Each structure stands twice: as structure tokens, then as C-alpha cells.
């Protein structure tokens, strides 16, 4: 798996790892797949454009065969619209294709599926930033824009997942004292990095 | 219409004004209702909580009987989940109830429907902020958090709509030089105001 530039990693603790879910019930039967769809939107969309320097990895940990990692590449992705169903439909197609025994496979342009675990994904990345309310203020943090930002879905990261980040030397960076949905956090990170870019 | 505290006003140029749309096709048949659903999410949700000091008004201008304004009140709203279908379902219920000839009516707790036009909504508000790339930098702007922030959907405001804002003395405030989706703009505004609150 080649990951470059800015990366977002979302841990989807309950999102299903079968294509047999309904696009009409993303929050329920699909294990909060709606959150993942919104994170993909938040990470990749500009108005009438895509963020071509962003990779977004969703690590799906729900039944029946976790882990599965779906990677959306902003440079290559096609057939992606901003609505939740669109991102979820591309995830469904990836799950229909299935993950190869090793490495990753492209299911639709710019969308890749693999059996990578959270540990595998983190191991393949550098400059890990764990978004956490106790971290350093994002507006003061030394960020270049090519970091890998790690977020969790509606559940916190487990102690085991936090240990993986700690072992890799992840920095904690904070968006403030309020707690936000993962997709909102991604918008805030992208915005902060956008403002630094144009200065 | 009593509006208080922070308000977001989204102009939905194509969103339908009939309940006869499918929750399975919000971007198409419902006239980009997916954008409005995401704006409601962005304006009202914190992690495991709602922003109780926010009102969000969507001015629907699509066929067959525009204008219709749907107002979500963060303090009172119930049955709202973060996914697009959930907000859209509450809009659908409001449209089923229909707007009264004058004033507004509550369709479900915290959701109100009226025949207010964009001009009516703006007339009822003070401290209007028009989010526009040519405005004053949001990080330097004098904002108290109780402003009414005006955004457009995937189409720009028309010259007539801009004239309504100008007449009311709206200030232009900018989120930067990149162009963003309306829901992402709302997340950025809420974040900026959150950070000021806790200082």
C-alpha cells in the first residue's frame, strides 16, 4: 500500500465487512457506515473539485470478516458524489470484489480494498497525528499538511489501538475542548491546513 | 418566527417543495436535498450532543410551490440522527404537514415549516454574515457567535438574493481562498466560534 501526502485513517469499529448491507440503512444494518461515508466526503471534497493530495483509509472492523481496509485516493477516485449513498456504494462494490490474500486491489478507479488491519495501516504511515482533546492546540502545532490523521467512529479507540499509535510515536493534536463527529474533525483539519498553505 | 442565538440560513435553489420525493434519491429527484441534510447535521451536531443554541433555516426554492422554509431548532429538535436520510425524513414530514397561510407550524418537535421567502427570513434576522471568499478573514472578524450565517447550496446566490443581503447590511466574511461545500463551511464557522467561546 503506497500512501502519500495527507492521509486520514478512520477506525470503523462496527462497519460491516460484507457487501450484503442496504444503502437504505447505513446507520443500522451496515454498522454506522454513514459515519464512514461522511468521513470520505469530508476528506476529499472541495466545491466542484476533489482534494487530489488526500488518501482516506477506512478500517472496517465489523462482522463477518474483519479487518478490511478500504482506501479512497483523491487523485484517482471516480464515480464519487458527495452524498452518503455514493461513498457507501463504492465501499459495497469494493466488498463485493473482496480483498486479495496479500496487498490491495482496486475495485473501482481510486478505491482499493485490502485485509490490512489498523496496525498494518499505521505501520505503513509516517507522521501520525492522533486527534484527541488532550493534545496540542492544532493552531499552534507544527504541521506540514502531509501527516496521517487518525480518527475513530462513534466509539473511542480501544486501549490496544491507542497502544499501536503510541508505539509508532503518534502525536496528539487537539481541535478544542468540545467533542466532534469524526467527519467534522476532518473538515477542521483540512481547513487549518488550507489556511497555512496559502500564507 | 422567533430566531435567536446562532442561525444558519441555507438557500436550496432546487430542493423540492413537495413531500413526494424518495429518501433513496436525495441528490437527484429531491433537488440536492442531500446538501440540505448535511447542512442540518453540520450545524446541529456535536459528538453525542446537539448544539442547543443553533437554529438552522433551509429555504427550499424547488418545484412545485416555492418558497418553503423549514427551520430546525437545536434546543427542541427530536428524532434527528446524523445521517442524511434522517434530516431528509424530517423535512419530508414537514412538507407532508404543509405550511400554514401565515406564520410557521411545528411538524415534529423542533422542526417548523412556513411559507417564508429568503427575503422574509433575512428580514427577521439581525447581524447577517454572508460567507463569501472575498470577505474579511473569519479569524480576524469581530464575531460574537449570535450572528446569522447565510450560505448557498451548489449554486451561487442570485444577484437578487445578494441584493437582499446588501440591503440588510450583511457583512461578508471569508473562510479562505478555497471554495467549500456549504456543510463544510458550517463546520468551520461553528469551530471558529467554539474556540472563541472557551478562551
Automatic annotation (TrEMBL), chains A, B:
Biological process according to GO: tRNA methylation
Gene Ontology terms: cellular component: cytoplasm
Q: What is its EC number?
A: 2.1.1.257
Q: Where in the cell is it found?
A: Cytoplasm
Entry-linked CDD domains: TrmY-like (cd18087)
One Gene Ontology term of the molecular function aspect:
S-adenosylmethionine-dependent methyltransferase activity
Query: What are the alphabetically sorted keywords of the record?
Result: Cytoplasm, Methyltransferase, S-adenosyl-L-methionine, Transferase, tRNA processing
Primary subcellular site in the record, as a coarse category: cytoplasm
Describe the task this protein carries out.
Answer: Specifically catalyzes the N1-methylation of pseudouridine at position 54 (Psi54) in tRNAs.
Q: Which HAMAP family match?
A: tRNA_methyltr_TrmY (MF_00587)
The similarity annotation says: Belongs to the methyltransferase superfamily. TrmY family.
Q: Which PANTHER family match?
A: TRNA (PSEUDOURIDINE(54)-N(1))-METHYLTRANSFERASE (PTHR40703:SF1)
Q: How does it assemble?
A: Homodimer.
Name under which the protein is recorded: tRNA (pseudouridine(54)-N(1))-methyltransferase
